[in-house]
Write a structure and sequence with these properties.
The structure holds three protein chains of three kinds. By secondary structure, chain A is mainly α. Chain A contains 14 helices and no strands. Chain A has a domain of 193 residues: MetI-like (MetI-like fold, Orthogonal Bundle), CATH 1.10.3720.10. Chain A is globular. In chain B, helix 8 runs parallel beside helix 9, helix 9 packs across helix 22 and helix 18 packs parallel to helix 19. Classes of the chains: A mainly alpha, B alpha/beta, C mainly alpha.
Amino acid sequence: MLPLVAQRVALGLLTLLAVSVLVFAGTEILPGDVATAILGQSATPEAVEAIRRSLGLEEPAALRYWHWLAGFLHGDLGNSLANGRPIIEQLDFRLKNTLFLASAAASVAVPLSVGLGILAAINQNGSFDRIVNIVSLSAISLPEFFIGYVLILLLAVKLDWFPSLSAISPEMSFGERLYDIALPAATLTLVVLAHMMRMTRAAIIGVMSHPFIEMAFLKGLPRWRIIVQHALPNALAPIINVVAINLAYLVVGVIVVEVVFVYPGIGQLMVDAVSKRDVPVVQACGLIFAGTYVGLNLLADILAILSNPLLRVPK
Amino acid sequence: MTDEILRITDLRIAARTEEGEEKILVQGIDLTLHRGEVLGLIGESGAGKSTIGLAALAYARPGCTIIGGEIRYAGTDIRTLSRRERRRLRGRRIAYVAQSAAASFNPAKSLYRQVCEMPVRHGLMSYAEAKKAAAQLFAELDLPSPETFGERYPHQVSGGQLQRAMVAMAMSCRPDILVFDEPTTALDVTTQIEVLAAIRKLVRDHRTAGLYISHDLAVVAQVAQRIMVLRHGRMVELGEAAQILHEPREEYTRRLVSVRAAAAPPAEAAVAERGERLLELNALGAAYGRLRVLKDVTFSVRRGETVAVVGESGSGKSTLARVVCGLREPAGGSVRFRGELLPPTLSLRSRDQLRRIQMIYQMPDMALNPRQRVSEILGRPLSFYFGWPRAKVTARVEALLRMIDLPVEFAARRPGELSGGQKQRLCIARALAAEPDLVICDEVTSALDPLVAEEILKLLGRLRDETGVAYLFITHDLGTVRRIADRVAVMLQGAVVAEGPLAQVFSPPYHPYTEALLASVPEMRLDWLDDTLRRRAGRQGAEGPVIGAAAADRFALGT
Amino acid sequence: MRLLGHRLSGGAAVGFAIILANIVAISFARWIAPYGEADLVGDVWAPPSGADWLGLDNLGRDMFSRLLFGGQTSVSLALLITALSFSLGIVMGFTAATTNRWIDAALSRLVDIIMAIPQLILALMVLSVLGTSIPVLIGTIAILDSTRVFRLSRAVAMNITVMEYVEAARLRGEKLWWIMRREVLPNALPPLIAEFGLRFCFTLLFIASLSFLGLGVQPPEADWGSMVRDNATAINFGGIAPLVPAAAIALLTIGVNLVVDWFLSIHGRAHGEGA
C-alpha cells in the first residue's frame, strides 16, 4: 500500500510540474504578446522593445520558465505589470482571506451534505428523500451569483441581519470576520451542498445493491445500521472523491462569490488582473488555484487508497 | 415426526414490474420442515427456489412481495409479526447461506466482525464470547488455524474457505433453520466436495433443519432427506430423495433426472480417427507478463471432430481459445490450420482464415449487440464474407433460423426479446453462417439451465453431423464432455496433463488429476458423497483431504 | 403522458415545458418583445408594472425585452460551444479507445493535465492573454469542455469494446470504422445524449459567470450574465433587477436537468425492453 501512496504522491508532483508548464505556456506562448498587452496596440515598436528587454522577454522561453518557477518556489512571484509592485505583497493578505472563506464554507458544507446524503439513503424513496431530490436537483442548477444576490436581498437588505458587503480587514477580530463572511460562506455552502449530498446518497445506494447488503438484512439488522456499518465503509472512496471535487470546486467558485460580495480575496485579484491583462499576477493566481486543486485531488486519492481494505490489508 | 419447525401453506409471491404490472413468482407452495431434517428445493432458473428460501425468513427481494399464504415458524405466522419481531427472528432463529460467499461478505470488514455480528447484535453474546464460539465453529468446519482465521478479510481466503466461513456465520446464533441457497454452485468441483461435506456434518451434529436450494439433483441428494421439484413457481413433485432420484413420478422430474443421469456412464467412444488434421497446436505457450498461463500445449483437432478441453478455473483453457482465434499472441510454439502456419494476431490473418475459425461464447447476452436485429446479426457474416446481394442474404438468414429451430419471424426481433437458449442458438447460427471449418465453443452451456443446455448440445451435435464442422469445446463440466466429445484434453495450470480419445482418458489407468476430477462430480446416487469421502480418506490417510488448490499443486508436479 | 414509448414523470414534464417555453421565447424574441433591445422606456430600475412586468434595468430599458434578446446570445453561444466540444471530444475519445495504445496514452495524459487545472482558471488565463472576444470565448470554452467529453466518450467506448459482440466483430475481420459505427455508437448514444444536456447547462452557467465577471460577452452585446453584472448594484436598494436574468439562467438549467434526470432513469431500466 505504501508504494501505492508514494506512487500517487510522485504522480501528483509530476502533475503539478506539468500544470506549472501549462500555466506558463498558456500565458507566455499564446499569440498575444505581453509587451503589446501592456502598452496597447498603438505602441511604437521602440517602446515595445524596451519593455520586452526590461521584462527579460529576450531570453528563450525554457529559461524564463525556469526563472519563474525557481522564483515561485522561493516566494518571489515577480512584479505586477499594472503597478510595478511585488505580487507577493498583494497576494499574502488576500490568499489568507480566500482560504478563510473557503474553509469556513467547507467546514459547514462537508458534514452537512454527507449527513443529509446518509439520511436520504436511509429514507430511500421516502418523502424526505423525494423532497431532498427535487430541491437538490434544482439547487445544482442555480448559478452562484443568483444564490448570492437572493441571500443579500433577503438577509442583508430586507432583514438587515448580515452585511451585504464583506469588506474585511486585518485588524478585525476572528468573530467579526466570521460575521462578515456569513453570507458569502453560506452562498458557497449552498453551491456545493446539493451536489455533494446527491453523490453521497448515490454512492451509498450503489453499494446497497450488493449481495452482502442483502446478507446483512437477513442477519436481522435494522436498515440504519446496515447503511452506517455495511454500506458506508464501502462507499467511502466515491464519497471522498466527491468531497474533494467539491472542495476544489469551492476554491474556484470562490472567484464569483468574491466578486458578488466585493470580498478582498485572491479571486477578485485574479479577475481584476485579467481585465487589466496583468499577466504575471494572473500566472501567480492561476498557479495557486491550480496547485490547491491538484493538492485536494491528490489528498482524495490517498484517502481513497487508505479506505480500501483490499489495498490496506494485503492478500 | 412431530417436532415440526416450519410450515408454509399456500405461499404466493409476486413481483411488480416497472410498468406496475404484477407477475406471479411463486404460486401455492406448501411445505413442512422438521427438526434435524433437510428438504431439498430443486428447479431451473425462474422456478422460484430462492424466492421461497428467502420467504422462510419473511424476506422478499426489493420489488417482490409475499401476497398470500402462511409461514409458520414454531407455530407463529411470521408474516403477521412486526418488522422488529421479524428482525429478531432473522439470523437468530432462521439463518441464510448465500450462493456467492465472495459477494455476500462485506469486503471492508474482517471475518470475525461479520461472523460475530449476529450473536452480538441479537444480544446473545459479548464480542469476546462470540469470537470464541466462532473459532470453535471454524474448527468444526476444518478451517485452517481456526483461532486466527477470523482476523482475515474476505479477499484473503480462498473461495471454498469463504463459503465455509459463511456457513459458520449462519450457525453463529445456533439457529433452528438454515436456508442454503446454492452454496456450492460457484465453486470448482473439487472444492464443492469439501463444502458439501462440511455442511452435512454441521447440520447432522447440531440437528439443524435446513432448506437446501440447488439446480443439481445429485448435489441435493447428498444432503437432503426429501426433495421438492419446482418449476415456474409451482411445485411439480415432492418425495423422498431416493424416490425422486430413482422413481420420479412426474414427466418434468424424469427429464431433469435423465439429463443429469445421461452424463454418468463413460461413453463408448468412437476411437476411429476422423478426417485429416485441421488444427495442430505445437508446444503452444502464452503468458500474462511473467505469469505463464499456457505451457507447451500440444494436440490436434481433426475435421468433423469434437475435442473437449476440460479444466477448472485458472487452468488456462480460455486463454487457449483466445490464442487459437488470434485474440492473444502466443509466447511460443505454433498453431497450424489446414496445414498452414496461422499468423499469431488477428490483423495478420486473411479474411478467409478468419472465416474458417468461428467462436461461440459463454454469455449469449454479451455476445449479441442489443441494438441490432436478428436479420442484421445473421446477415452481416454473409454479406461480409461472401458479398451476397440482399435477397440472397435474406433467404439464407431464413434458412439459418430454420436450421436452429427458430421461427423465421424472429429475423425482425432484437436479442432482448429472446430467451437465453434462443440467444445461444442465434450465436451458433451466426458462427455457422460463415461456413467455418472449426468452431471454438467457450463454455457455451454453462450459463444455461440443464434442459436448455441439453437442447443446445443436441443441436451442436446435429449441426456437426450436417455440416462436418469441427468443435474445440472449452468446458469445466465433465458431464458435457462425455455428451459431446470425441477426444479430451485435460488441463491443469496451463498444461495438458492428459490427452486422447474420450474412453481412454476417462477410464483406468487415469492420470491422478483426471481421477480426482472425475471423483468430484456428484453422481446420481444417495451414497456418493459418503463413498467418495471414504475412498479419499483411505487413499490419503494421515495427509488429510487434499483438494482444490493443494491438489492442483500436487498433480502438477506429477506431470 | 408518454414520450419515446416511456411514461413521462412529473418532473420531466415540467422540464420539457420549460425548455419549450425558452425555445419559443428566444426564437420569436423579435415578435414577442414589447420594446427593442436598446429602447429607453422609463426610469432607471423602475419596479415591475403592468406595461413592463419585469421592471426596467440600469439604463431604464425594458427588462423583459432585454431578457429575450439576451437569451438569444446566451443560449446560442452555449449550444454552439457544446456542439463544438462534443464533436471534438467524441472523435478524440473514440479514437483513443479504439486505436493504438500510444495515441490513447498521449491524449489521455494531455487531458489529465488540462483537467488538473480548474476550467475557470484556465479560461481566465487564456482570456488575459488573448483578450475577450466572442471567437476567443467560443474556442477556449469548447476546447476546455471537450476534455470532459473526451473522458466520457472514451470510457463509454472502452466499456463497449470489451463486450463480446465487439470481439465477435473483430474476429470476423471487420474494419475499425465499421465497428465504431455499427457496434459501438448505437450503444454509446444514451449516455452521450444525457451528457450533452449536462454540458449545455454547464456551458450556459460558465459563459454567464464569465460575463458576470466582465470577461465574457462585452457591451453593447448583452447576455444573461452581463445583465446580472450591469444591474448588480440595484440589489442594495432592494431591487430585483439582477435576479431576473439570474433566474432565467437557473430556470433553463433546472428544466434541462429535469429532462436529463428522466432520460437517465428510463435509460437505466430500458435494457432489452426498449426495442
